[in-house]
Amino acid sequence: MTGWTRRELGIGAAALGSALGPARARARPRVVVIGGGIGGATAAKYLAAGDALDVTLVEPKPRYATCVFSNLYLAGLWSLESLTHGYGTLARRYGVAVVEDAAAAIDPGIRRVRLTGGASLTYDRLVVAPGIAFRFGEIDGYDEAATESMPHAWSAGAQTRLLRARLEAMEDGGVLVIVAPPEPSRCPPGPYERASLAAYYFKQFKPRSKIIILDAKDSFYQQEVFREGWDRHYPGMIEWLPARSTGGVTAVDVPAGLVRTAQGTVRADIANVIPRQTAGALAHAAGLVDAGGWCPVDPETFESRLRPGIHVVGDAARAGDMPKSAFCANAQAKACACAILTALTGARPSRPHLLGTFYTFLAGNDAMGDAAVFTPADGTIRLSGAFLTGTGEQSETRRRNARAAVGWYDAFTRDVFG
Ligand SMILES: Cc1cc2nc3c(=O)[nH]c(=O)nc-3n(C[C@H](O)[C@H](O)[C@H](O)COP(=O)(O)OP(=O)(O)OC[C@H]3O[C@@H](n4cnc5c(N)ncnc54)[C@H](O)[C@@H]3O)c2cc1C
Prior knowledge:
Bound molecules: flavin-adenine dinucleotide
Number of strands: 24
Number of helices: 12
CATH architecture of the largest domain: 3-Layer(bba) Sandwich
Strand order of the largest sheet: 5-2-1-9-20
CATH superfamily of the largest domain: FAD/NAD(P)-binding domain
Helix content: 25-40%
CATH class of the largest domain: Alpha Beta
Shape: globular
CATH topology of the largest domain: FAD/NAD(P)-binding domain
Radius of gyration: 22 Å
Largest sheet: 5 strands, parallel
Number of domains: 2
Structural class: alpha/beta
């Protein structure tokens, strides 16, 4: 061990403290972060960066695959490996203690997190960022087991790989059915970007194939821009059916590959069913969730309105106008880290900057480049400014966006994972 510091080994005092027992003096405030996705990893990094806190990150997976750009993987344009990130830099450079385990329960009374492996961690502040869970049961026949045959691919990794394998195996002339979820959901443009990039793949390799989107909604984000792009790149290939025309998806027949709506049945060679979503299971178990299924938070500090001392960031949070997206999870996590540093160390408070850029692909060389600014106001978070792609944009602008998106992904994931 000679020559290594605790920071280089990635062992925070919080982890050492729990290993050595409560008798040892606690020099610095402890923060535990649950969930090493976009929100949790960003929070852990920015909490640890000032070297004033002991920060422990709890995440069961050794590596995290981003949903961001996973539709490019489905199109065969990116590898899954290039979307996968580890926690080594957070540990080595920032001194975050990374614990490879899942949080099983939170006891807010004694400020303790129990881990599935049996250990427990105490905290002064807790950040919960478990992402989403699915509301199985709303579509008859679609349960956890059905995701193996009809993947949602709405959390990246095994599910995305499965959907890609299905796309590769499908015969030319096959039908991909995408069941788009009701709002609020993770990544509002995601299902339509997925349809675009699946069509991009089909156009090259299986040009007689079709995509049907059975939507739980009657309209969707940037609908006109998507429709214009579909007409330009994939005429006749993508059919979007709003809830008003189908009555919504009611059931699936997994062995027969059928998707049933209130108005009729569609045969699918591949069914990509994205169910209604809610906050991750741990948030429910910890009493952080309201009747609508999401975690209400203070718009400046992201402290839970239901459990003081616990902050919620990312998709699990009910964050006003902010969409459930990686750039929002990242912005929320930074604001939350600032608020916790202020509360625990007396650091100067600063107003949160909730802004971000996001790219949405219509084809390999055609992307929308949008940006949005959000401001805490009237007890919630309001959209205060936006730059949104419009219809009729020049192809060269879209090509430039597609190139810029690659640089954005690199910079963004460095910001999150160090
Ligand atoms: C197809 C698709 C494309 C997308 N594209 C974009 C895009 O281009 N731009 C964009 O901004 N957003 C995009 N998103 C949205 C983005 O992926 C999410 O908004 C973002 O991942 C939310 O971050 P999060 O930290 O809340 O959740 P996640 O990133 O899902 O992380 C949650 C983490 O918590 C862990 N966890 C859960 N329970 C526990 C527990 N009990 N103990 C410990 N750990 C736990 C999980 O293992 C996971 O690692 C896309 C989403 C999809 C599905």
